[in-house]
Amino acid sequence: RNIFYEETVDSTQKIAQKLAYEGAEEGTIVLAEEQIGGRGRMDRSWHSPKYKGIWMSVLLRPNIPIMQAPQLTLLTAVAVVQGIEEVTGIQAQIKWPNDVLINGKKVTGILTELQADSDRIHSLIIGIGINVNQHIEDYPEELQNTATSLFIEKKEDWNRAVIIQAILLKMEKLYTIYLENGFYPIKLLWESYALTIGTRITASTLTGKIVGKALGITDDGVLLVEDEQGTTHRIYSADISV
Ligand code: BTN
């Protein structure tokens, strides 16, 4: 397997994209100690301080239509929850679609980007950012109420390599299940870790806000929200607040 390790990068996503374009094989991993231009979802930046976290991109080449790409993001969130639990004993939860939270604060963000030929995925780049050894004062003030780290939760420094290994092993296991049996078994696991299913949420999309009860996810990974009038909305991309 190909593992690319760098001290400082702009974004591991960019490097993985370039490698993907050059034909790198499935399972290629890009890791960095620090990102200067770490990217989050919705054009946000991702705070990636040196030696404090896991800043990693994983290249997959599943033979699936674009529509199903969100399934792999959900699968990754499950792998992160399981990996964190195995190493630290902390039970994290998932907020749709891809935030991993501990005690309601964000410990991991996942960003999936893809390259496709017509409808088929050519490469899928899953970026995983895990806050590991930050102390609360390492965060900019505006993140201190919403972000956490494994250190903050357990007052213990963690070996990042051990966590990376645990998560990649979980991911490989889940991906094998996914390729053999489809998304359904992954969906069940995802739902068992999900925070927002069955509760009242506000989904802020690019076109407006939908307030209602989160019913669950579809087989494609789309979030179903039932509004006060009883209409069910299919949410593809949004920020969720409770
Ligand atoms: C989010 O907005 O929640 C997603 C954050 C994703 C951050 C990771 S860190 C490794 C990879 N490289 C990036 O620039 N972003 C992702």
TrEMBL record:
- UniProt KW Transcription keyword: yes
What does the entry list under GO cellular component? Answer: cytoplasm
Any one GO BP annotation for this protein: regulation of DNA-templated transcription
The alphabetized UniProt keywords are:
ATP-binding, Biotin, DNA-binding, Ligase, Nucleotide-binding, Repressor, Transcription, Transcription regulation
Reaction catalyzed: biotin + L-lysyl-[protein] + ATP = N(6)-biotinyl-L-lysyl-[protein] + AMP + diphosphate + H(+)
Primary enzyme class? ligase
User: What is this enzyme's EC?
Assistant: 6.3.4.15
Belongs to which family? Answer: Belongs to the biotin--protein ligase family.
Briefly state the protein's biological role.
Acts both as a biotin--[acetyl-CoA-carboxylase] ligase and a repressor.
Q: What is this protein called?
A: Bifunctional ligase/repressor BirA
UniProt organism field: Niallia nealsonii
This protein's gene is called birA
- The shown residues of the full protein are 84 to 325 of 327
